[in-house]
Amino acid sequence: LLILKSSFSSTKSNKNLPPSPPKLPLIGNLHQLGSSPHRALQAMAQTYGPLMLIHLGTVPVLVASSVDAAKEIMKTHDLIFSSRPHLNIPDKLFYACKDIAFSKYGEYWRQVKSIAVLHLLSNKRVQSYQHVRDDEMTTMMEKIRRANGSAVNLSELFISLTNNVVCRVALGKAYEGRKFKNLLDRFMELLGCFSVGSYIPSLRWVDRLSGLERKADKVAKEFDEFLEVVLDEHVNKNDTCVESRDLVDILLEFQRDNDKGFRLERDMIKALIVDIFSAGTDTTFTSLEWATCELLRHPRAMKQLKKEVNEIGQGRPMITEDDLDKMPYLKAVFKEGLRLHTPLPLLVPRESTEDIKLHGYDIQSGTQVLINAWAIARDPSVWEEPEEFRPDRFLNSPIDYKGFHFELLPFGAGRRGCPGIQFAMVVNELVLANLVYKFDLALVGEEGMDMSETNGITVHKKCPIVVSATPCS
Ligand code: HEM
Questions:
Q1: What is the pLDDT confidence band of residue 11, given thresholds at 50, 70 and 90?
Q2: Protein residue whose Cα sits closest to atom 31 of ligand 1
Q3: Looking at residue 152, what DSSP letter applies?
């Protein structure tokens, strides 16, 4: 009883901590997160405010749920909040967090992030893979055309397209076999799993007993064997054509040149490639799927987009990447899709590296931080009719998703912001523009669209989008 009493009573320290919901011994507030943590945290913030301190197991977690709170963390004090917490499963999957997304803030992260920003994902590099996107988009359109008006599973086609684009850009060829797809699925599932040991270190044995750690070791080993073969093939290949270089070639070249005083070890290269897969495929396909789904539910928006693509396409066989910048409504559709269906609703957890005062509250060094970007994007004090899909709201608005407008944060912001925005959005825009340009789509076999979400780090649509597609005359 004494232990319980001390857990429920507020802290005795003279620190001014943010408001906290009552917690249980050992598990803290874990039991309150349910299957949809972003929704549960949004509801809690209505009682405890936009900056609240919860406890996941024994770990203190600061949750930000307003534009101001997010801005304080990701802009004003970005440096102090630029680290990542240590999490057991990513540690196994990303070569002891030698990747970008999960590595702690410091010199190593700075070096690998700058390799990604300047060499792997720069605008110029992304443009150089236009032929890959064109190929995959054309193949997908052809598959839809061949279905000849019968039911087509668009979600499956989107997954396969994004996987192929990422594989070809990163590894030089598509790996379409069931085995590779299954490996990627298991990898993503593990990333979304809750590891007890990460939040209650004394109960790490639960992860061993439940088989979670064994599963993570197995997937990490299988991915490593796959990447070893890929690296060997790249080291031994004779083709030195600059145009056909993929991301593995570029990383190996970087390793060979090594004139910047930073040695890129083999494990680091593998960790960076795993990052591109895990950060790049699921998120990209999810945002394409949700935008398409909302268009299918909103015929007026679909009609307006069709009008725009037809005006730009003018009867040419397809919409090209050069056309995309002339399509404000297409861009507005994606912004609105990302607003309502933020693929990573809580972004990627951060960790503070110094004691700091935030909105008058004392935040201790080592506090984990979650930004509820999903809740901010539906905040009625910021957005008019926030639950409605209304792309027009972006037509005369400067708000963008690149990390400068804290009301719309699907890619995060600041030092830790996503370096893959261009990579993801050009493929998404190209596919959706052509889909709408070439076909009239109608939902198959459903009264209305099922909007249920999956649980996990990325929030997908639970049921696939199945349509019949009639070629436009
Ligand atoms: C629609 C697609 C995507 C979404 C919604 C998305 C979202 C995000 C978010 C929310 C973060 C964390 C930001 C933060 O902590 O402030 C992130 C980080 C990251 N993303 Fe993306 N991403 C997408 C596509 C991509 C692609 C295509 C790639 C690479 C090919 C990529 C690579 C990364 C990497 C490496 C990081 C870690 C950055 C760091 O920790 O410094 N992402 N992304």
A1: very low
A2: 420
A3: E
